[in-house]
């Protein structure tokens, strides 16, 4: 657990250092700049977690430009899964950070976005144990922190609608809305 906390703190420190040092340059007029769509995008989709085969729903809204190519989004999720002895569901609330790699990769199309994402937040998990497992109390618990990492892409049909996909600590596929 100590190594996990140290690794998490290192990742958070690196993320914030990168965001602070990144210059806010939103001018995309030269041919080497990406044309990513970030702030003002609502991303909703179906997801699967790679633990216990959980499946659910995720949504995030990119509301803040943190620097060149970086956005922050408010995120919510709901996942459910069943094991041999119990049914679980988790409602998560947190933030999703995205680094759009369009500029770095030389992607100039306004149809495609490529990004890396990181999530941090907390979850409320409910457990309902099956008969025969009465020695485990059913109920709710709050996780102190959850995190996730991934890479993804968006394809924009136009400024108002597109598709997105993310793979990493889980997987998500869904629709992107420009608001």
Automatic annotation (TrEMBL):
What UniProt keywords apply to this chain's record, in alphabetical order? Signal
- UniProt source species: Flammeovirga yaeyamensis
The name on file for this protein is Outer membrane protein beta-barrel domain-containing protein
Q: Which domain of life is it from?
A: Bacteria
Asked whether the UniProt record includes Signal among its keywords, one would answer yes
Q: Where is the signal peptide?
A: 1-22
């Amino acid at each position: 657990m100590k190594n996990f906390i140290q690794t998490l703190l290192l990742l958070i420190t690196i993320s914030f250092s990168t965001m602070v040092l990144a210059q806010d340059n939103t001018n995309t007029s030269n041919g080497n700049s990406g044309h990513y769509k970030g702030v003002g995008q609502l991303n909703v989709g179906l997801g699967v977690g790679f633990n216990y085969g959980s499946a659910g729903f995720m949504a995030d809204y990119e509301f803040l430009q943190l620097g060149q190519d970086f956005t922050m989004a408010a995120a919510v999720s709901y996942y459910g899964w069943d094991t041999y002895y119990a049914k679980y569901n988790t409602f998560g609330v947190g933030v999703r950070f995205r680094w759009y790699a369009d500029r770095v990769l030389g992607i100039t199309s306004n149809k495609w976005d490529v990004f890396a994402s990181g999530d941090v937040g907390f979850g409320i998990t409910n457990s309902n144990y099956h008969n025969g497992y009465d020695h485990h109390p059913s109920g709710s618990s709050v996780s102190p922190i959850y995190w996730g990492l991934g890479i993804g892409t968006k394809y924009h049909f136009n400024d108002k609608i597109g598709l997105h996909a993310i793979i990493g600590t889980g997987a998500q596929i869904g629709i992107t809305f420009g608001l």
